[in-house]
Amino acid sequence: MTTQAVRRADGSSLPLSTEAAVLHGAGDLRIEQKSLKPLGPNDVLVEMRSGGICGSDMHYFADGRNGTNVLRQPTVLGHEGAGVVVAGGEAARIAVGTAVVIEPALPCGNCPTCLSGRYNLCPTGTCFGSPPTDGLFARHVVVPEAALHVLPESVPAEVGAAIEPLAVAVWAVERAQVKAGHRVLITGAGPIGLLVAQVAASRGASEIVVTDVNDDRLAVAARFGASRTINTAVTALELKDLDRLIECSGNTRALADGIYALAPAARATVVGQARPSVDGIPLGFLQRYEIDLVTAFRYANAFPTAIQLASSGVVDLRSIITATYPLANAAAALTAPVTDPTNLKVLITY
Q: Counting beta carbons within 10 angstroms of the beta carbon of residue 245, is it exposed (0 to 12), middle (13 to 18) or buried (19 or more)?
């Protein structure tokens, strides 16, 4: 299957359509030719180089839904993506040939929430790869120029898709208000938890404890500088007086146990996707010791910091990338973390 193109006056070509990974239903992912929308004045055409597999993509593929959002029409998956600009609308200013990462959430920009700076909470916002909005698992995508962040040479577009989960980690640490000297507990050693550990270390955390039930992932956490790792499937969590909990697993038990490990006036931050309603949270304990329970949703203004951390080498993106697949094998990429639990961040490459 090839990308269809139209010739321009200067002899170069712009694609009219492109190959994309389209989800039709649970387990039904098809590589199809999709039409590209015409470039608007503020739009940019990006030729993709990398796309990251996220847990939400895996849920859509496995179940046809992610939380309360249900697939109701064929949709291109993917919200982690980086590539190279190949064309721009008449008002676009990013030069052709520039490597970029795409910030996938598209806020309205005009509501009180957006104007306050919390655009990640926009009530009418959309996100690439969140049905019914088509995503980034395609050879070419048309995106608003405002959604792009320029990548330095030290962060090639071939791994640039990993900037998006790093932005999640940056925002999680911001919401947790990690400061120098803090003792931090991170529950869940998946890609987000491992990135959170590195970002927390960059903020001067004096102790970083990482828990999981997978020894392979805990070994990676130790290489990333975790002061201590605990496999909670075999060892009870018996920590006390920690300053911060950053919950990255989505597991209710991990959240509850982590809260009990906190000191008075500490803070617990929920990052892993929560269920609509959760029992078993020790509200009385939280109230008695005035422990703040906060949440983190995507990110706001976190991409520049994520890019700086990656470009400076403070955060090692390549170490969390454990497998790559071509677009034609996108279905295999979506199941790779399940079929091989040692996988961390899986990328689609183009």
A: buried
Residue ranges in the chain assigned as alpha helix (H): 55-63, 112-115, 157-160, 163-176, 191-202, 215-223, 252-260, 283-288, 303-311, 330-339
The region, left, alpha or beta by phi > 0 then psi within -120 to 50, assigned to residue 265 is left
pLDDT of 14 over the 90 cut: no
161/282 Cα distance (integer angstroms): 37
Q: Which residue has 């306050």 as its token pair?
A: 116
CA pair distance 304, 300, nearest whole angstrom: 10
Cα(69)–Cα(72) distance, rounded to whole angstroms? 9
Helix axis angle, 215-223 to 191-202, nearest 10°: 20
Indicate the SS3 state at residue 9: coil
Residues 6+ apart with CB under 8 A from 64: 23, 25, 26, 70, 71
Question: Which is nearest to 1 in space by CA: 334, 281, 326?
Answer: 326
User: In which band, very low, low, confident or very high, does the pLDDT at 12 lie, cut at 50, 70 and 90?
Assistant: low
pLDDT(184) > 60:
yes
* Distance (Å, whole) CA 226 – CA 209: 6
Alpha carbon distance 310, 161 (integer Å): 12
Helix (H) or strand (E) run with residue 52 in it? strand 43-52
CA–centroid distance for 188 within its chain: 15
How much is the CA Rg of the chain, to the nearest whole Å?
21
CA distance 176 to 85: 35
Q: Determine the average pLDDT of the residues in 284-295.
A: 98
Distance in angstroms (rounded) separating the CA atoms of residues 249 and 210:
11
Residue corresponding to tokens 């993917």: 78
pTM for the complete prediction? 0.94
Helix (H, G, I), strand (E, B) or coil at 255: helix
